[in-house]
Specification:
heterodimer; A: 100 residues; mainly alpha; B: 465 residues; alpha/beta; Rossmann fold; 2 domains; six-stranded parallel sheet; 7% strand; elongated
Chain lengths: 100, 465
């Protein structure tokens, strides 16, 4: 049971790693800053683990640590998506308008 | 998480959809035309995943979840609204928050499970916590340096690498001990503290110019620790997101280390900031030619092709909006103006692009180093604004230079080079720049924002000529 969790996990990790590598390799250097803030927001999906920890309330310690973890991750989700979108809105091409 | 309730299947399906959305989100980031779809896909995936998690059968209490979500949002909104010049420190801070979350969850899981934790579980949990805590303190240090709360100069001392290596080894030895003897719970806080200390010491010797590499590397560590957390919780979505974030950070680190001419292993072991060894040799006053704003404006308006090379100095002087006015004034006169962006210009990957985009400069005018370097010989004027080491020809032709071999922007090949600089002090790495003494170089002494502003006034004021 434990070894299947390990191998399943490793399979997923390996595949996702390759997909990530192939997809991110194509991101233009132009967008490296928004890319980093976006992956940061996506990485805050760790919030799901923290939510379960808080909700299950198995011990006071786990509930307190979990609550702090949810706060930290949520601020990354909200802040990360907000700033990524703000940055991307600023990237404009000269082709449609300024080609006069 | 061994029992399977009906909604467990629903949650798994939701996580599957969220994983697909995350991958799409990154795929759409490849082009500025689709990038905003990427943000939406990410947001939908995230909302789905959180909503799905709330269905979890083990959750008995929603109050604190709600409180934490609200508090996190209250902190997150201002962090999403910082000024564009503060983006590097904001990014470092968010790495810290992400790593904090992972470390806290890992710690809670350890104390919940600890006596009966399998060796495999304990190994990934240790990895999660060690990576998470060193990323937490390391990122806080990086954010402090970028915000200039902490000194930006690298702090080095004798035996630094040895001390760092020793600390990491102790942390790993403690982790191995915990794997073999999971009942020895008293070891856990020591492992945590040592990893936290290691993060601080890892970033202390790093100077501002190395920040792009460090931020990328901390990004990778944050991703890997989240992936390890996915193994601990047997959560596939977390493994996917962590692997995506980890590979993104690794790719950026590789790009940055190549752009600094450091080997990737050199970067992996955190051996940054050893460039400052160069003694202040260029003290004797060599002659330089300088020019006024009026002369500069005359040369620029007579040019056909101008390439602007922005660097961190432009960000510090907040000169990007004045640069935009210069771009407008020159474009109006039919001058072809483009921008050459070195991969490590600024304090994080893509820093200059964001600042120039904020100033409304169209992104198709922003060129990568490889795309523009061949064009410098046909360029009339290369205007360097606040960049130094990335334009230093010593990197190409002086084997004794500490930055020898680093890929640079070949601005010295332009017909005329103009460098806006406060004075003749060497750059951050303390390396003299022979560019300033070339016959085709004109030094424009002054604050970047003020000087560009006065060039613009000359250009627009003399509009009839």
């Amino acid at each position: 049971m434990n070894s299947s969790i390990l191998t399943n996990g490793l399979f997923i990790f390996m595949l996702a790693g390759f997909i990530g590598f192939e997809v991110i390799r194509r991101v233009s250097p132009l967008l490296h800053t928004p890319l980093m803030s976006l992956t940061n927001a996506l990485d805050a999906i760790a919030v799901v683990g923290a939510i379960v920890l808080v909700g299950e309330h198995k011990s006071t310690l786990s509930a307190v640590l979990g609550t702090l973890a949810v706060i930290a991750a949520t601020s990354n989700i909200v802040g990360g998506f907000l700033i990524t979108d703000r940055m991307l809105k600023m990237f404009k091409s000269s082709r449609p308008a300024a080609k006069s | 998480m061994t029992e399977f309730a009906g909604n467990q299947v629903v949650i798994e399906v939701i996580y599957l959809v969220a994983s697909a959305l995350f991958i799409l989100s990154l795929k759409w980031m490849s082009s500025p035309t689709t990038a905003r779809h990427g943000v939406w896909a990410g947001e939908v995936g995230m909302l789905l995943a959180i909503a799905g998690t709330l269905l979890h059968h083990g959750i008995v209490d929603y109050t604190w979840i709600a409180v934490a979500l609200v508090l996190g949002t209250i902190i997150g909104v201002p962090l999403g609204r910082v000024q564009m010049t503060a983006v590097p420190q904001r990014t470092a801070l968010s790495h810290a928050f992400g790593a904090l979350c992972v470390t806290l969850v890992g710690t809670a899981e350890f104390y919940l499970r600890s006596p009966d934790i399998t060796p495999f579980m304990m190994s990934v949990l240790s990895m999660e916590v060690i990576l998470g805590s060193l990323t937490f303190t390391g990122s806080l240090m990086a954010a402090g340096k970028l915000q200039e709360i902490l000194p930006q100069r690298p702090l080095t001392y004798r035996g630094q690498n040895f001390v760092n290596f020793l600390l990491l080894t102790i942390a790993v030895v403690l982790a191995v001990n915990l794997v073999l003897h999971p009942e020895a719970r008293q070891l856990y806080p020591f492992m945590l503290l040592i990893a936290l200390a290691f993060g601080v010491l890892l970033v202390i010797p790093i100077g501002g110019a190395d920040m792009p590499t460090v931020i990328s590397l901390l990004n990778a560590y944050a991703g890997l620790s989240a992936a390890a957390m996915g193994f601990v919780l047997n959560n596939k979505l977390l493994i996917v997101a962590g692997a995506l974030d980890g590979s993104s950070g690794l790719i950026l680190s590789v790009i940055m280390s190549k752009a600094m001419n450091r080997s990737f292993t050199n970067v992996l072991f955190g051996a940054f900031g050893q460039v400052q060894a160069a003694a202040a040799a260029g003290q004797e006053a060599k002659p330089v030619r300088s020019a006024t704003a009026e002369e500069t404006a005359a040369i620029l308006s007579a040019a056909n092709k101008v390439v602007v090379v922005p660097g961190y100095g432009m960000a510090v002087a907040q000169a990007q909006h004045k640069v935009r006015e210069l771009y407008d004034a020159l474009s109006k006169r039919g001058v072809d103006v483009r921008f050459a962006i070195h991969p490590v210009a600024g304090r994080m990957p893509g820093h200059m692009n964001v600042l120039l985009a904020e100033a409304d400069i169209p992104y198709d005018r922003l060129m990568d180093m490889d795309d523009i370097n061949g064009d410098f010989p046909q360029t009339d004027v290369a205007l360097v604004i606040g960049a130094n080491d990335v334009t230093n020809p010593a990197a190409r032709n002086d084997a004794s230079s500490p930055i020898y071999g680093m890929p640079i922007l070949d601005v010295d090949k332009a017909h005329t080079v103009m460098v806006i600089k406060r004075g003749m002090s060497p750059g951050f790495a303390g390396i003299d720049n022979p560019l300033y003494y070339l016959d085709n170089t004109l030094m424009l002494f002054g604050d970047a924002k003020a000087f560009v502003g006065s060039i613009v006034r000359e250009l627009t004021g003399a509009g009839h000529s």
